[in-house]
Amino acid sequence: MGIPDHLTSPLRNTYAGQEATVRTGHGITDWFQIGKVVHQGCILSPCLFNLYAEYIMRKPGLEEAQDRIKMPAEISITSGMQMTPPLWQKVKRNSKASFTLMKVKEERGKVGLKLNIQKMNIMASGPITSWEIDGETVETVSGFIFWGSQITADGDFSHEIKRHLLLGRKVMTNLDSIFKSRDITLPTKVCLVMAMVFPVVMYGCESCTVKKAEHQIIDAFELWCWRRLLRVLWTAFTVSHRVWVVVFHFHSFLCTFDFFFDFFFGLLVIQKRVV
Questions:
Q1: Among 71-80, 111-120, 144-153, which is the least confidently predicted range?
Q2: pTM
Q3: Residue 174 CB-half CA count within 13 A
Q4: Rounded to the nearest 10 degrees, what angle do helices 45-57 and 94-110 cross at?
Q5: I need a labelling partner for 179 at 20 to 30 A (CA). Which of 25, 105, 227, 260 fits?
């Protein structure tokens, strides 16, 4: 993997030569050696899971594969290991994808991981309705939620943006008691909106493609937040610019949305050039 020894040695010494005992109703058992295991609640667990997945994908024939395989980090690594969460694969051709997945299954078996096909879903961009591996039928889905973002086969993010806006509206509604309080100043309330409401909407926005229709929806959501903060009714004919002047907020929320998307795209371009 190319990891320096001064990083692997402390980790190896932490888990090497461990012993444990079990307390029963008749007393304590004899001490015994612990095999391959990760401490419960250890902060290194996600990193170790990712290392296992990266080690498998770097095997010859997998790194150069054109089919893109998504492997979640929450892989259960125990002795007699199984892959408990689903594995989603976006495929274009059934034959080549089957060969790639069988190669992954073979390499995972060498390190003690078992690919559970019954807990695996396939999302295909082509007209693939059914798929079988080793005589077992793999379920095909049109979309799934991965790390808080909804991924669809057609790549449309309109439903994802609307879902995040609904979550932001829920958070804004839960803060009504704070916004009604006269003991809290207006700048503090504005900071609460920007710190507790907007991050919920912007979570995962780096990979979203915002269309013109979504631009209007996002602008309407931002104006709704400021009007709710100021207790301005929708029947009151108040110009939007006056609302922004009152809350001392002249930077559009949509500009922040686009900034994160451009920043993330720039990082991908730089990473591709470096590699």
A1: 71-80
A2: 0.50
A3: 9
A4: 120
A5: 260
